[in-house]
Design goal:
By secondary structure, the chain is of the alpha/beta class. The chain is built from 9 helices and 7 strands.
Length: 210
């Protein structure tokens, strides 16, 4: 995504009033990082600190994310980080289906513009954006081709702050990211396609480097 298109998208997001989240926000949080990154990370939605600063993952979960990236030789400046919804849900509640749908065109435009080799979804809401028929406990740490994109679900960093066991799982899953980046190409697709839903079972093409 070139700088002009990225700026235009950020301006449109800042002016957005498509859903109820617009009325309670301090700032929109479009995402930041390298607009031509090979790795894109997608979370659920902004929290308090993100709403104040207009940047994603700047709180404690963000510090852990930076640490996990550093352990695999990457910085925030080398990746692109965003969320499914661009405004903070009240009291950090889960985003609702219509709110996700309202933000869908913005996230799809980001993905199609960046064309990352790998999309890491942070938590179940981001995972279900692409893989609605599975659970994160079953799919984390497994790369899946879905709609032309390589999707790699992991637990949300906030889970690692709460439980040491979950932190270890997160660390193990992050350690595989460089392998996928080294063996993947940028996709040729120019749009985002997702499964509409259905039974809770694995979908897409599961990939393994083991």
């Amino acid at each position: 995504m070139d700088a002009e298109n990225q700026h235009d998208l950020e301006v449109r997001i800042a002016a957005c009033t498509r859903c109820r989240l617009a009325s309670g926000r301090t700032r929109t949080v479009p995402g930041d990082g390298d607009p031509n990154a090979e790795l894109m990370l997608i979370g659920e939605g902004p929290g308090f600190n993100e709403d104040q600063q207009g940047r994603p993952f700047v709180g404690q979960a963000g510090k852990l994310l930076d640490k996990l990236l550093g352990e695999i030789g990457l910085t925030r400046e080398q990746v692109f980080v965003t969320n499914v919804v661009k405004c903070r849900p009240p009291n950090n509640r889960d985003p609702e289906a219509d709110e996700i749908a309202s933000c869908e065109p913005y996230l799809d435009e980001q993905i199609a513009g960046i064309r990352p080799k790998l999309i890491v979804t942070l938590g179940r809401f981001a995972m279900n954006y692409f893989l609605p028929r599975t659970t994160i406990s079953r799919s984390h740490g497994r790369a899946t081709q879905a709609g032309g994109w390589l999707i790699y679900p992991v637990y949300h960093p906030a889970a690692g702050l709460r439980q040491t066991r979950m932190l270890n799982v997160l660390r193990e899953d992050f350690q595989r990211i460089p392998e996928f980046l080294a063996t993947s190409d940028r996709p040729e697709v120019t749009a985002v396609e997702r499964d509409a839903g259905g039974a809770e079972e694995p979908q897409g093409t599961q990939l393994s480097l083991l």
